[in-house]
User: What shape does this take?
Amino acid sequence: MIRSVVLDVEGTTSSVEYVHQRLFPYSREVLPDWVPAHSDEPAVASALRAAAGLAGRPEASPAEVVEFLLDWIRQDAKLAPLKTIQGLIWQDALASGALAGHVYDDVPPAIRAWAGQGLTVHIFSSGSVTAQKAWFRHTSHGDLVPYLTAFFDLENAGVKHLPDSYRAIARSIGTAPDSILFLSDVTAELDAARWAGWRTVAVQRNGASSTAGGHLAIADFDELELTASAVRPVGVRRSR
Assistant: This one.
């Protein structure tokens, strides 16, 4: 019985290109001025201290920490302090309309349908929970947060290629592992989820084979029939 769906974001619900061509450059551009303007806020101050510690420079000046963060952005580092700062920057930008959360057209109807069937739908991303909520609240398809039950990131779940992260999520949502379906475009994440006892589907946005690393594969959410007792691809793939 499928009771819960957990979704990756980048490459699964949303465009990789949008994230890398719009979000990352935006955070890199505004971060040097944004950090000093918000450094007294508790969440920002805590993230800056954590960043300095990770860099091995606990006594680093704010300007030095900014340089650490910019370097990590260039490396696409999956580090919690950076993701916290980026998430807060993106939250402001999404709320102001400077950015919009991108989701593929097939995602909103699927999320609404699953929630309407009584399934719980969750997000697991390396982006912070703050960023996730802002992203799904401010999409061109409207506010999708009411259809999402919980959000998980590097801090409250763990890194995405380790089975223990998926075990932690299962405990948090109170669902048996074999009743959870995970959708992602990253095989290592799908493998980790499967090791934790979850069911898995690979999302290959540029055209799917029927399997990917042993995981059922789809090109978009329209190709997935999901009921409480069945997970299978349906229909004919749309030409691309």
Observations:
- The longest helix spans residues 16-38.
